[in-house]
Amino acid sequence: MIDTDTLNAILEDNGVKLYDTELVEENKQKIYRVYITSNSTITLDKCAEISHIISPIIDTNPPTKDPYFLEVSSPGIERGLKKPLHFMNSIDENIKLKTKDGKKIIAKLIDADSEKITIKYNGKKESLRYSDINRARTYFEW
Prior knowledge:
GMP Synthetase, Chain A, domain 3, 3 helices
């Protein structure tokens, strides 16, 4: 499997940044997803361009021994927050999270560092360690 530093360097040379990767199985098919971001809009054409660039490189270092499909896309307006950097880059955005004890919260992310986040909801501030968060994503109120 290609290491993320190498993948990120290739992506940055082509005007985008690596947001995340995941290997999932849908309809009995493996899909290797590469999520990219940029200071400008990620278009379908940009995703196709990046896919053509990284496909031969990933094929020489496949993410799985099984057959798979490569999918390149934007993480979307409601993107998953998995790494501290994801949270740090989402300060001042609304987020939706579920804690390890099952509590569901919609809040504004007001701070994040390498160990914890600080959110504001219902007029109060609360800090949560990453280890207390089960799942989180940005939240867009439609």
